[in-house]
């Protein structure tokens, strides 16, 4: 380092001895900066002169840090102009070799190493730090734009080893805490800006580039910063209208670091920290919704507004792909679809493309039906896909084809999108062509095969049918691609027909259909059913049966299907095939909600829309399960004796055996006898009440009476007979709405009539028991 400092001293005094020299250099740089058609090659004079000017600017910065030089305006302006010119060159179409030769030399690394080493020499408000920050920001932009090139990777590994120590330092954290407690209209010091804005940007971009992970990143220390980042973002958004440019830079680059850290292989679990953080997501959405920021989006990753929106959109996409369906339901609740729609017209391509990807994930089927641009969405995303597929790098505008395919996997589940794609042979043929290189396309084709027109086109394509049949026979049974292929063939009608034409004997009462993501909760339901003497069939292995045939067998031998609804269930081609086949076979359908805020629509809404939904997210498990039992009693009763045979190849489902006639006759009706004759209504248990409701088809009342015994039922009837009928009906209506039901006047009248008859019978039972007791006493 001594050598560079000696050289810098010599250079510095040579420059300072000629003030005209500095002014001439500034004029030259500004001329290049203002030249809209600037072109550079390694051989021309402009390049050579610029290279010398770069070295002079670097030497000036080095002198600032080692000598703590007093502020000189001409030096400040020269270095600032060079840094701005570097930004222009970074974003230009100039050849990469020229850019690297000009901007990525050893002197730059040595100078910044010196700057970090002597950072304590700079006081809090040293203006030179503004230019050092600007230069470091430009280097970060360069890495962001050209990170795929080896020469760039190697250079920034060295630089970011130094920067990582600053990001993980106590000084950095103290500045972050101070910024959180500072009013947004207060000045941010140059030194604080260097730490919080420039170092965060450089480290975040480097993590996004995913180089040298173990060396530059300390996961443990970084985890300690996450709560501080969260607090800063939430608090700062409250005064977004007062943000200065420097404050905007701090917010943006903290988000860059915290977001792109999720690209780091060791810290991908960090998004779990925000999984249920409604306040944090609301803050991000408020930023997206703020018009002055959206208005300043430009066509390149070169201003803070563009970087901020791009970073937030990227973070939301990371969360959608990395978390379960809860986050999708939460983002819908926070109105993200409406806020994202204007961003599909953004000038920066990646914002536009990523926004389309987010909309593909979070728009419901009903949303897509209401929006008039469904066909436009298909056309645009198809252009993205086709362009990326034809590109040697398999990217479109820097977005990898795998990300575009993820969006299409989600969109393909929508019936409207299937209908739009069914009109274009060109689009369908591209998907067929892509299957060899990208097997995930089979999942898209499986979803498309639910559409009758596409189904017919696929069946008529003999080459495709022959291809997937061969693949089915050669791939392992647990191969994911094979499962998709079996699903396609099933939808196309290539399956073993039921030999009994739907007349197989019922072996099970209930078949539970669920997505593997809800396995834990479904396992609890399964265990509770077994404890209550139901015969239950469930497969936890997530194997697609033998393949689709085992699913068919399970449905054909069951009476009732328990549909465990969630976002992942609705998006599963397998679950759709299963539920629709159960519907076709006329099974009783009992839908339950396993995910907060989830509302079934599209194909799932069609199947279960008019049925009573038991929501396991609204109540504690015990109460929800009791409601489920009440609903199941409409279709089945558990057998007293069980032979728990579990079908070995059953997939994602549970099943329960219906009792035989002899078993049913053996059951004792507890309302008829209590050991001393018929039982009075006041001695009924809650089970007796539910049996009475089900016998008399008072289905709606059974939902609110599941915890009521006979005495409670009697007092409810007395209340209903009171003079204030309107108030009683209003109170009952409120109870019905709590369980998702409505009380009709007809049902209320039937309840009163049946209760009057029951009370009359009850009085006769009481009198009979009393008479029998007296007669017994006499004798």
UniProtKB/TrEMBL annotation:
GO BP: any one term: signal transduction
Gene3D superfamilies, per the entry: Toll/interleukin-1 receptor homology (TIR) domain
Return the Pfam families for the record: TIR_2
Domain of life of the source: Eukaryota
**Residues in TIR domain copies:** 510-628
Protein name listed in UniProt: TIR domain-containing protein
| Lineage, highest ranks first | Eukaryota, Metazoa, Spiralia, Gnathifera, Rotifera
């Amino acid at each position: 380092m001594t050598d560079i400092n000696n050289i810098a001293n010599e250079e510095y005094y040579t420059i300072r001895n000629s003030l005209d020299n500095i002014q001439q250099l500034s004029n030259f740089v500004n001329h290049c900066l203002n030249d809209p058609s600037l072109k550079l090659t390694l051989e021309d004079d402009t390049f050579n002169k610029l290279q010398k000017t770069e070295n002079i600017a670097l030497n000036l910065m080095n002198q600032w840090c080692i000598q703590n030089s007093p502020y000189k305006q001409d030096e400040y302006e020269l270095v600032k102009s060079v840094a701005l010119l570097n930004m222009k060159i970074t974003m230009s179409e100039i050849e990469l070799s020229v850019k690297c030769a000009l901007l990525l030399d050893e002197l730059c690394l040595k100078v910044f190493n010196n700057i970090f080493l002597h950072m304590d020499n700079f006081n809090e408000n040293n203006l030179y730090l503004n230019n050092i920050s600007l230069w470091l920001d430009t280097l970060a932009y360069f890495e962001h734009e050209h990170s795929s090139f080896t020469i760039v990777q190697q250079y920034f590994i060295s630089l970011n080893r130094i920067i990582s120590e600053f990001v993980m330092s106590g000084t950095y954290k103290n500045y972050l805490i101070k910024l959180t407690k500072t009013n947004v209209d207060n000045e941010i010091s140059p030194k604080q800006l260097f730490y919080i804005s420039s170092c965060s940007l450089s480290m975040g971009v480097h993590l996004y580039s995913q180089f040298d992970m173990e060396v530059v990143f300390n996961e443990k220390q970084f985890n300690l910063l996450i709560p501080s980042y969260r607090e800063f973002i939430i608090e700062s958004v409250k005064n977004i209208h007062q943000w200065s440019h420097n404050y905007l830079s701090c917010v943006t680059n903290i988000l860059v670091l915290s977001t792109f850290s999720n690209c780091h292989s060791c810290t991908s679990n960090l998004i779990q920290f925000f999984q249920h953080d409604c306040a944090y997501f609301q803050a991000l959405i408020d930023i997206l919704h703020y018009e002055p920021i959206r208005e300043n989006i430009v066509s390149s990753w070169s201003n803070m507004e563009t970087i901020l929106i791009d970073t937030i959109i990227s973070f939301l996409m990371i969360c959608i792909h990395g978390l379960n369906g809860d986050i999708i339901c939460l983002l819908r609740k926070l109105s993200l679809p409406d806020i994202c729609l204007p961003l599909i017209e953004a000038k920066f391509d990646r914002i536009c493309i990523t926004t389309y990807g987010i909309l593909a994930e979070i728009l419901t089927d009903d949303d897509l039906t209401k929006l008039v641009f469904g066909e436009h969405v298909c056309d645009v995303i198809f252009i993205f896909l086709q362009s990326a597929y034809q590109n040697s790098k398999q990217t479109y505008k820097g977005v990898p084809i795998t990300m575009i395919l993820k969006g299409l996997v989600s969109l393909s589940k929508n019936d409207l999108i299937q209908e739009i794609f069914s009109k274009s042979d060109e689009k369908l043929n591209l998907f067929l062509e892509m299957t060899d290189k990208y097997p995930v396309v089979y999942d898209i084709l499986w979803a498309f095969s639910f559409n009758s027109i596409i189904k017919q086109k696929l069946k008529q394509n003999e080459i495709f049918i022959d291809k997937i049949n061969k693949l089915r026979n050669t791939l392992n049974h647990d191969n994911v691609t094979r499962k998709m292929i079996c699903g396609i063939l099933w939808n196309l009608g290539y399956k073993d027909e039921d030999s009994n034409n739907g007349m197989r004997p019922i072996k099970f009462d209930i078949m539970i259909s669920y997505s593997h993501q809800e396995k834990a909760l479904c396992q609890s339901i399964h265990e509770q059913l077994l404890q209550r003497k139901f015969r239950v069939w469930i497969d936890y292995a997530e194997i697609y049966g033998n393949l689709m045939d085992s699913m068919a067998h399970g449905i054909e031998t069951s009476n009732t299907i328990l549909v465990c609804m969630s976002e992942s269930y609705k998006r599963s081609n397998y679950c759709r095939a299963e539920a629709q086949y159960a519907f076709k076979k006329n099974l009783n359908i009992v839908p339950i909600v396993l995910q907060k805020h989830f509302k079934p629509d599209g194909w799932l809404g069609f199947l279960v829309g008019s049925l009573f939904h038991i929501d396991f997210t609204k109540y504690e498990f015990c109460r929800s399960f009791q409601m489920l039992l009440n609903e199941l009693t409409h279709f089945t009763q558990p057998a007293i004796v069980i032979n728990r045979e579990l079908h070995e190849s059953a997939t994602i489902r549970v099943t329960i055996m219906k009792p035989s006639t002899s078993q049913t006759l053996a059951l004792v009706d507890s309302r008829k006898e209590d050991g001393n004759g018929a039982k009075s209504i006041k001695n009924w248990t809650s089970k007796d009440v539910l049996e009475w409701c089900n016998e008399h088809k008072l289905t709606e009342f059974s939902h609110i009476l599941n915890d009521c015994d006979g005495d409670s039922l009697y007092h409810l009837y007395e209340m209903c007979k009171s003079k204030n009928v309107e108030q009683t009906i209003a109170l009952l209506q409120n109870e019905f709405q709590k369980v998702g039901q409505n009380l009709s006047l007809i049902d209320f009248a039937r309840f009163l009539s049946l209760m009057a008859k029951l009370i009359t019978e009850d009085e006769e039972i009481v009198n009979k028991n009393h008479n029998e007791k007296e007669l017994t006493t006499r004798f």
